[in-house]
Write a structure and sequence with these properties.
nine-stranded parallel β-sheet, alpha/beta, TIM Barrel, binds zinc ion, binds N-(aminocarbonyl)-beta-alanine
Length: 487
């Protein structure tokens, strides 16, 4: 029997830290050796002219999830995980979404039953908590965290999901006690509601008005408020899908003051603008997501946040609703913007488009690319060093990137279940051609090589990133301020 099941040779490994010419030896799904001239494996892959990168970790995607208004995503755990794999992602963290009145255990059991028989790559879950009553926060949530679901998302907007500040504080206190990561959708609900009413009163219901209703200031105010609540309780927090500079600056200010506030952004804020929502007829509906794509200046600001380290993770926020009466247009063919299902697909293009427009143009360092697409999401959500890097002892989750392979992105070419892509016709100037998960070759020669259900559930650690600072910020002198010992 050979020493290795698989050896990747003649390539350069690239991680968040370094680039080294070395072979990768894999045994029983793990990386067991890195070095020159490794002994032959049961199988050898020649990576001459390819880059050997960690498989991506997509920490924000909606798969087989019913939206709060009852619209089902087009992707199930099979098509979603296949699509992710074809784009170089080997770990996904979708949501197990609680609808009000549901127990968290029931929610997780349901999602697990959907995912286990279908996923082709490894997966974990974040919870979505929409019902923050005492039993859920006090008993159910700690049990879920103990079971490895060590992060959860809460919302400041959407009628059926939003928590008020009081509930948010309760949730933050629980996260602090349990050392779980809180993800927050930060938009001011009443600002959006108020503008929406005014727009609809004036007959302005077309998709482009979605971006007017979801004003930048609504995002900035909610981001500021969320950070303030997190600061009050000394609880780390990640602001998801940041779209604009004012919100990004709130995050930067908090980070500069030493707070554990993290930010996430997504492809739609780098590659789309409000002009996409202003397409012929209802076509703009395909680009409606919240917060919405903004303008060229915002795109530049989001790029700078990705490059300068202000953002910690780059996720797809894949929220795939078909452009038909089952999805985007479930409220009718001429639905007003407030009734259009929110979200855009992006699992498969997340890494290739960022690589192409960031790394290949020289704008973004390749190590930073790996950091935001793989290493940081793994660290932020309790999966590192098992996932997100190439190191002895890590899972053999690897993507071989061909920097000479150009791919035209079209809905037909992608592997999700969608009938459109917002990025139709764009050219990716590099692509991950061989994708490996726990030593199994998942994608090779443009073919899927594994069975449905061969992905594994990931019970996650409590993230170091979610550990409270355990120090009082200057404004919180315990003699004159609330003290975290009361939590
Ligand atoms: O509209 C977006 N961004 N995605 C779907 C739901 C969510 O809030 O993440
Ligand atoms: Zn959200
Ligand atoms: Zn989302």
């Amino acid at each position: 029997m050979r020493k290795y099941d698989l050896v990747i040779r003649n390539g350069h490994t690239v991680t968040a830290k370094d680039k080294v010419k070395q072979d990768v030896g894999i045994k029983n799904g793990k990386i067991v050796a890195l070095g020159e001239n490794l002994a032959p494996g049961e199988r050898d892959i020649d990576a001459t002219d390819l880059l050997i990168l960690p498989g991506g970790v997509d920490a924000h995607c909606h798969i087989e999830q019913k939206s709060s208004s009852g619209v089902m995503t087009a992707d199930d755990f099979y098509s979603g995980s296949v699509s992710a794999a074809f784009g170089g992602t080997t770990t996904i963290l979708p949501f197990a979404a609680q609808h009000r009145g549901q127990s968290l255990r029931e929610v997780v059991d349901d999602y697990m039953a959907c995912a286990k028989p279908k996923a082709v790559i490894d997966f974990g879950f974040h919870l979505i908590i929409s019902d923050a009553d005492d039993a859920i926060i006090g008993q159910e949530l700690p049990a879920m965290i103990e079971d490895g679901i060590t992060s959860f998302k809460i919302y400041m907007t959407y009628d059926d999901l939003k928590l008020d500040d009081y509930d948010i504080l309760n949730v933050l206190a629980a996260a602090r006690r349990e050392q779980a990561m809180v993800m927050i959708h930060a938009e001011n609900h009443d600002v959006i509601r108020w503008i929406t009413e005014k727009l609809l009163d004036q007959g302005c219901g077309q998709p482009k008005y979605h971006a007017i209703a979801h004003a930048r200031i609504a995002e900035k105010e909610a981001t500021h408020r969320a950070i303030s609540l997190a600061e009050l309780l000394d609880t780390p927090m990640l602001i998801v899908h940041v779209s604009s500079e004012p919100a990004l600056n709130e995050i930067r200010r908090a980070q500069a003051r030493g707070l554990k506030i993290y930010g996430e952004t997504c492809p739609q804020y780098l590659f789309l603008t409000i002009d996409d929502l202003d397409k012929e007829g209802m076509d703009g509906a395909m680009f409606c997501c919240s917060p919405p794509p903004r303008d060229k200046q915002s795109q530049e600001a989001i790029w700078s946040g990705l490059i300068d380290g202000s953002f910690t993770v780059f996720s797809s926020d894949h929220a795939p609703y078909l452009y038909d009466s089952s999805g985007k247009l479930s409220a009718g063919p001429h639905a007003t913007f407030d009734k259009i299902a929110n979200g855009v697909p992006g699992l498969e293009i997340r890494m290739p488009l960022l690589f192409s427009e960031g790394v290949m143009t020289g704008r973004m360092d390749i190590h930073r690319f790996i950091e935001v697409t793989a290493t940081n999401p793994a660290k932020t959500y309790g999966l590192h060093p098992r996932k997100g890097t190439i190191a002895v002892g890590s899972d053999a989750d690897i993507a071989l990137w061909d920097l000479n392979k150009q791919v035209e992105i079209t809905a037909d070419a992608l592997h999700d279940n969608m009938d459109y892509t917002p990025y139709e016709g764009r050219i990716a100037k590099a692509w991950p051609t061989t994708v490996i998960s726990r030593g199994r070759i998942v994608v090779e020669n443009e073919k899927l090589c594994v069975e449905r259900g061969s992905g594994e559930y990931l019970k996650r650690e409590r993230p170091e990133a979610a550990k409270p600072l355990q120090r009082l910020v200057p404004e919180m002198d315990p003699k004159t301020n609330f003290n975290t010992k009361f939590i």
